[in-house]
Amino acid sequence: MKNSIEKALKNSYTYSAYRKMVSQLISEGKSTGNVQSSELLQYSKLNETRTNRLDKTLLFSEEIISKLRNITKHYILVTLTEGWCGDAAQIVPVLNKMAETIPTIDLRLVLRDENEALMNLFLTNGSKSIPKVIILNAKTKEVVASWGPRPEPARKLIADYKEKKGVVDETAKIELQKWYLHDKGLSTVNELLTLLV
Q: Does position 46 have pLDDT exceeding 90, yes or no?
């Protein structure tokens, strides 16, 4: 595990570098990841719009800011992501806002497909679901906890839909994006706050 984490950190991106890289690929007609398709490119474009909106509009309440400022331990949030991932487009800007709010959090983004060994250590029910946040003690680089790929209410929404319809289709994806829009990152922050103690 230690080698996979070290390799990921060495190849990680800051939030701004990640955003530039994703935008550059889109301008070249590409998405991140090993697989290229017009569908993934479309998702990447849509996600860039979502991420831009969140970067401009995401605000934390005074209560959340106060809770974040009470975190005294230093953490690195190594986050497995890809530009085409709809959940990542909603969650990664929230992680960035957390890191901007307090100096004890360092956000490092890594591409799932380029860090398969690390991803395989943090599967969700046997799948490579992203985003996956691996919380490291900044000094020791030891894993404190992991979180993801989505907040519990969003996970339940998709699980219930899949149980009822037997599939996660475009309607389910639209419902999930509506949920994210109304939640405004609150569930993500609150769930992560329980792990950053």
A: yes
Tokens of 45: 């474009």
In a domain, 136, yes or no: yes
95 belongs to a structural domain: yes
Widest Cα–Cα separation across the chain: 46
Residue 174 lies in a domain: no
Nearest to 168 by CA among 151, 176, 5: 176
The answer on pLDDT for 197 being more than 80 is no
Side chain identity, residue 149: P
Let me know: does 129 contact 72? Beta carbons within 8 Å.
no
For the chain, the domain total comes to: 1
Give the domain CATH number at 19.
3.40.30.10
| pLDDT above 90 as % of the chain | 98
In a domain? residue 158: no
How long, in residues, is the chain?
Answer: 197
Give the model confidence (pLDDT) of 106-117 as tens digits: 999 999 999 999
Q: Give the single-character DSSP code of 127.
A: B
Pairing of strands 105-111, 143-147: unpaired
Question: What's the token pair of residue 103?
Answer: 């100096």
The answer to pTM > 0.85 is yes
| Domain region containing 48 | 2-149
125: left (phi over 0), alpha (psi -120 to 50) or beta: left
User: Residue 14: what pLDDT?
Assistant: 98
CB-based contact 143:195 (threshold 8 Å): no
